[in-house]
Amino acid sequence: MNGGNDALSMTMEPLGELEQAEASTAQARAAELELRQMRQLAAIGELAAGVAHEINTPMQYIGDNLCFLDVTVKRLLDLAGSFERLVQCCKSGAPSLEELERCEQELSKGRLGFLRKQAPLAIEQSTSGVDQVRSIVQALKEFSHPSGDEAVPVDLNQLVRNASTVTRNAWRYQAELSLELAEELPLVLGNPQALGQVLINLIVNAADAIEASAGTRPEGELGKIAIRSRAEHGVVELEVADNGSGIPESIRDKVMQPFFTTKRIGKGTGQGLALAHSTIVERHAGKFFFESEEGRGTSFFIQLPPGAELE
Ligand SMILES: Nc1ncnc2c1ncn2[C@@H]1O[C@H](COP(=O)(O)OP(=O)(O)OP(=O)(O)O)[C@@H](O)[C@H]1O
Ligand SMILES: [Mg+2]
């Protein structure tokens, strides 16, 4: 009984200042982690819808092409049957006139001219559709591969390619996206999922800014997003540039604050840039900043130390 009370009084003892500070830091860290995970889940949900659409389009024409090729193969096999019979006839003497006429009829029914043109096209289109689906699946696999907090060598160019692929549905109706990636970009040490998520946020923001400024372009003209990578002055730099609405001067110091958004409810939660900032600056000891001109566009920059320097 007594021992039980002792234990109770021990746990009830007020925490020292240091312990309190430690506890609240741990709490803040756990809250940040939870927020980051929630945000990532929400982003994955959004992306999944876009990716499903991206995969659906090639799957539809691959399906149509397979139906066409199914009919084509049946037709060609029928013709091969006629050819076999003709060969048999030739072997056992000259084929009869009826036999020859039947073959001729089947040849014209087979619409060989049409098949010669269309069948290779159907195969080519289907192969490129399969490649497209494969690259989307590969990019998703790389993004969703579970990784701890441990830093691994990361190829930023590959992350850029993957992020462009999985966000295609967010930008393709608004903008042309060009990649200007430096050859032999040094690897950086970091968390590929977290860095990939930053790129996704920046690309989606760029597409949104271009959509917001659609009224200033001639009808039907797409905006431009350019993603560049370079290694200069001992840093590896990524730039995500858009020619969208730009960021008004009055809100430039607020855009990286958590929950700051100018987007309508349901579209933006105001967490993309706050998380990007904490990922780049706090988790990767890098720099994260932007240059913007209202009405002309914005460039976001990520600067990271090359991997070799971190080892
Ligand atoms: N490329 C850009 N061009 C113009 N404005 C931008 C750009 N990127 C961000 N902003 C501005 O910064 C705000 C905050 O961006 P952030 O990514 O943090 O949140 P969000 O995009 O509004 O919502 P979320 O990313 O959570 O979906 C945006 O609402 C927008 O006003
Ligand atoms: Mg955003």
What does this protein structure show overall?
The protein is built from 9 helices and 7 strands, in the order ααααβααββαββαββα. The chain folds into 2 domains: 129 residues, no CATH class; 162 residues, Histidine kinase-like ATPase, C-terminal domain (Heat Shock Protein 90, 2-Layer Sandwich), CATH 3.30.565. With 311 residues, the protein is α+β, with helices and mostly antiparallel strands. The N terminus is likely disordered. The chain is elongated. The strands form 2 sheets. The chain has a 5-stranded mixed beta sheet with strand order 2-4-5-7-6. The two termini are 56 Å apart. Adenosine-5'-triphosphate binds next to helix 7 and helix 8.
Oligomer: single chain
How many domains in all?
A: 2
Q: In the CATH scheme, what's the topology name of the largest domain?
A: Heat Shock Protein 90
Major beta-sheet overview: 5 strands, mixed
Ligand list = adenosine-5'-triphosphate, magnesium ion
Cα-atom radius of gyration: 30 Å
Shape descriptor reads elongated
Low-confidence stretches: 1-11
Strand percent estimate: 5-15%
| Main sheet strand line-up | 2-4-5-7-6
Distance between the termini: 56 Å
Mean pLDDT: 87
User: Pairing-aware structural class of the strands and helices?
Assistant: alpha+beta
At the fourth CATH level, what is the homologous superfamily of the largest domain? Histidine kinase-like ATPase, C-terminal domain
Helix content: 55-70%
The total count of strands amounts to 7
The helix count comes to 9
